[in-house]
């Protein structure tokens, strides 16, 4: 295997090897299948799970790279139940361990944790259990710090090893070993001691995000020799990805029309931004005779369970949910996931939309992309270090008109995507070339000068104010200095987004005790616009994609500089009224 490449890791063993390990005629296969159904209550394996389990049961060292939510944990939890002794699980965060322990408890699997907050009695009981032939627990979760610092733990591990009770070592989030990964944790560097002391115990490292160079590094740090790497491709070929613009305030009607039309009698999820949105949109859909219920973090646990149950059994068709609706959803026949508001990152979007089509039958993932939503989310993620960058990537995904949607997702999984493989399963590939390239230099100069002028007068402008001023609807005092545009609202919004994504504008946050405001300020590249040779082009959608309000565009003036999107001019939207409204912590 070549090292140092930044490409996706390739399986280090052949297709036949993999096929062989996909078989179910190993000595443990019956038991494994039995526990899958009786304990985990799952009907079948997802891709690579069976192979991973068989390899690990055969005693091989293994790296498993699979997108989040695809079911990596099962690949060590299930073998743990089918092996003598216990499995040692290393996880980076106590909260991650607690999630897994809670889940294991709910399905009656004996699992324990040793961490800084364990009581003396608990620790004593657990350390004794490690060398008890009756194995009172099948999984022991510890932090890497514990391995590094507790000689007592190491001595018990050694004893268990000698007694043949240390069945397996699982290192969750294994990329944390490597400084080249995105989440390096120094204590992970010391985990090599495990394989050096206990060479006969098979190790499995799990991660959603590791390039082959990071995996090579992990291999060295963990002292495993020639592990087998299994990589699940990120691509979900049965999912159709589409982005629609919110070009009027009635886009919820568009969503209702879809649910009553194309998705009649089929189950789906509508993801919304806030708890309030969840309640409101559910009411709107019910008004249109759609069986919809909200789901969010502030609801009573019993109500949440009920909504989930009714949805699973098709008593209701749609759950209108915040991101709180996610954990433990394994309904297979979800035919659509509609985003009423964009997600805060592509990773989040991939995960949320990925709840569609788990039965491998075709399903649709549609995002409704609205200008003002960008700033609502932007202020929400203002505290996160990489929050703006991640949001910008999501916005770029929506704004994109010429690249396969999958290619933009692939970047996040370190994969190289060949657009031909999409098979018209995204709107861009299906409607190819439905855009025009515009020279927007003059427009950019005009709109940037609005912000520049305002700032020279010590005035801050929200994105909405910028739109309105540019379209000639601002306060009279500005009008003399503004070149009013004849572009449509959609075009105005698209151009402002483009300028934000490309550094001509940037975010200017302002905090009040109750809310965070978003203003536009000049970006690092805005000065370039003074330079007469500097030009900006952008690709803009030719058709207006919101289907119900727009007649088909049959012709357009292909003029580079004055290309215009034809179709109905969007109604002046009142829903744009409040800009950076109060951002409450009600988005789950
Ligand atoms: P990861 O660690 O890869 O992010 P998890 O192990 O936490 O993912 O699993 C995510 C979800 O997938 C869990 O709710 C789990 O129950 C579910 N899951 C795992 N394997 C299967 C399967 N074979 N069929 C259905 N659901 C599964
Ligand atoms: Mg996991
Ligand atoms: Zn495509």
What does this structure look like?
The protein has 588 residues and is of the alpha/beta class. The protein is built from 22 helices and 17 strands. A seven-stranded parallel beta sheet has the order 3-4-2-5-6-1-7, with helices on both faces. A six-stranded parallel beta sheet has the order 8-13-12-9-11-10, sandwiched between helices. Strands 14-17 form a two-stranded antiparallel ribbon. A hairpin with a 4-residue loop joins strand 15 and strand 16. The radius of gyration is 27 Å and the shape is elongated. The two termini are 43 Å apart.
Oligomer: single chain
Instruction: Report, as a whole number of angstroms, the end-to-end distance.
Output: 43 Å
Query: How helical, in percent, are the residues?
Result: 25-40%
pLDDT averaged residue by residue: 88
Q: Can you tell me the residue ranges where pLDDT is under 50 for at least 5 consecutive residues?
A: 1-11, 545-584
Strand content: 15-25%
Largest β sheet strand count, sense and barrel closure? 7 strands, parallel
Radius of gyration: 27 Å
Structural class: alpha/beta
Number of helices: 22
For the largest beta sheet, what order do the strands appear in spatially?
A: 3-4-2-5-6-1-7
The tally of beta strands, per DSSP, is: 17
């Amino acid at each position: 295997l070549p090292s140092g490449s930044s490409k996706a890791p390739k399986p280090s063993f052949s297709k036949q090897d993999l096929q062989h390990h996909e078989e179910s005629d190993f000595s443990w296969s019956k038991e494994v299948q039995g526990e899958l159904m009786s304990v985990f209550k799952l009907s079948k394996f997802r891709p690579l799970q069976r192979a991973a389990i068989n390899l690990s049961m055969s005693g091989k060292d293994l790296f498993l790279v699979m997108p989040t939510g695809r079911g990596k944990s099962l690949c060590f939890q299930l073998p743990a139940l089918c092996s003598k002794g216990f499995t040692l699980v290393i996880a980076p965060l106590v909260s991650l361990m607690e999630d897994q322990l809670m889940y294991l408890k709910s399905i009656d699997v004996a699992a324990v944790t040793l961490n800084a907050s364990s009581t003396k009695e608990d620790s004593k009981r657990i350390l004794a259990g490690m060398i008890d032939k009756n194995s009172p627990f099948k999984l022991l979760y510890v932090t890497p710090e514990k391995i590094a610092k507790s000689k007592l733990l190491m001595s018990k591990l050694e004893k268990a090893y000698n007694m043949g009770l240390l069945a397996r070592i699982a290192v969750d989030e294994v990329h944390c070993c490597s400084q080249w990964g995105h989440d390096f944790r120094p204590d992970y560097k010391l985990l090599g001691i495990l394989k050096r002391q206990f060479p006969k115990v098979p190790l499995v490292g799990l991660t959603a995000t590791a390039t082959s160079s990071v995996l090579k590094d992990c291999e060295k740090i963990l002292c495993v020799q020639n592990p087998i790497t299994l990589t699940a491709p990120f691509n979900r070929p049965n999912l159709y990805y589409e982005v629609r613009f919110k070009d009027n305030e009635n886009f919820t009607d568009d969503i209702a029309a879809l649910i009553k039309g194309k998705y009649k009698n089929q189950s789906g999820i509508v993801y919304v931004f806030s708890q309030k949105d969840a309640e409101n949109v559910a009411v709107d859909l019910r008004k249109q005779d759609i069986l919809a219920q909200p789901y969010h973090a502030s609801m009573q646990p019993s109500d949440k369970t009920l909504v989930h149950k009714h949805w699973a059994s098709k008593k209701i068709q749609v759950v209108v949910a915040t991101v709180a609706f996610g954990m433990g959803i394994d309904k297979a026949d979800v035919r659509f996931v509609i985003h009423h508001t964009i997600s805060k990152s592509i990773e989040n979007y991939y995960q949320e939309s990925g709840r569609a089509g788990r039965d491998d039958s075709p399903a649709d993932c549609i995002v409704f992309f609205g200008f003002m939503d960008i700033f609502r989310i932007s202020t929400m993620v203002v505290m996160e270090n990489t929050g703006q960058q991640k949001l910008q990537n999501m916005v770029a995904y929506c704004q994109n008109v010429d690249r396969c949607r999958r290619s933009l997702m692939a970047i996040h999984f370190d994969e190289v995507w060949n657009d031909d493989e999409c098979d018209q399963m995204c709107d861009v590939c299906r409607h190819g070339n439905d855009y025009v390239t515009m020279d927007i230099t003059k427009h950019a100069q005009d709109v940037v000068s609005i912000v520049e002028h305002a700032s020279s007068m010590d005035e801050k402008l929200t994105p909405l104010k910028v739109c309105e001023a540019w379209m000639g609807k601002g306060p009279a005092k500005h009008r003399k200095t503004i070149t009013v545009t004849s572009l449509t609202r959609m075009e105005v919004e698209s151009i402002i987004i483009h300028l934000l994504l490309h550094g001509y504008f940037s975010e200017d946050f302002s905090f009040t005790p109750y809310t965070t405001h978003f203003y536009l300020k000049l970006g690092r590249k805005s000065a370039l616009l003074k330079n007469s040779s500097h030009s900006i082009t952008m690709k803009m959608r030719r058709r207006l994609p919101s289907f119900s309000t727009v007649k088909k565009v049959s012709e357009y003036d292909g003029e580079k500089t004055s290309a215009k999107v034809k179709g109905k001019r969007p109604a002046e939207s009142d829903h744009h009224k409040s800009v950076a409204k109060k951002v409450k912590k009600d988005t789950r």
